[in-house]
Amino acid sequence: xxxxxxxxxxxxxxxxxxxxxxxxxxxxxxxxxxxxxxxxxxxxxxxxxxxxxxxxxxxxxxxxxxxxxxxxxxxxxxxxxxxxxxxxxxxxxxxxxxxxxxxxxxxxxxxxxxxxxxxxxxxxxxxxxxxxxxxxxxxxxxxxxxxxxxxxxxxxxxxxxxxxxxxxxxxxxxxxxxxxxxxxxxxxxxxxxxxxxxxxxxxxxxx
Length: 207
Known about the structure:
Blueprint: E1 7-10, E2 12-15, H1 22-25, H2 45-48, E3 71-74, H3 86-94, E4 98-101, H4 106-115, E5 118-121, H5 124-135, E6 140-143, E7 148-150, E8 156-158, H6 163-171, H7 175-180, H8 183-205
C-alpha cells in the first residue's frame, strides 16, 4: 500500500533547472542501501553540500523559503537519465509529496507514481506562474480529486493526469494491492490449472 493522496496545501520549493538527471537527484555513491528509507539525506547531495559536508547556502533547497516545502517545482525533463528508483525514493524520503514540471523522464515518472509521489505535468508558462507564487512565499493547493492547483489568489490551474494512476493514488494502491484485489480470479485460475496440465500431459501420451 501507498499513502493515499487527495489534496495537499504547502509552500513549494523551486528548482528552475532543466534536464536534472537521476544521478544529480541521488548520486551513485549512495546507492548501497537495500531498504527504501534513508535516501532523503542524500537528495541533490553534490548541489546541497560542499565536499566537507557544509551546506551550500546558495542552493535552492537550502534557502529559507524552501524549508518544509512538500511541493517541488522543477524544469523540463526532470528525472531524465538512468532508471534508478532511488531518485523517487529520495524525493519522497526528503518530504516531497508532489513534483510539478513541464516534462519528466518517462521511467522516473513511472517510478514516482508507483510509490505515491504525485508527478504532475504542466505547460511551461503555468509552471513559471507557480514558481512566481512560490518566490512570493505563497502556498499552493494541489487537488487530485478535481485535478487542479490553486494559488493564494484563488487562481486555479487544471492539470491532466492518467486515470489509472489517479485511482491508485486516491485509494492508496500499489502494485501488490492491485494484485490482491484479483485474489478470487487468481484462485479460480489456479483451481483450473492442474486439470489443464493433466489434460495436456494425457494428450501428449496418446499414440
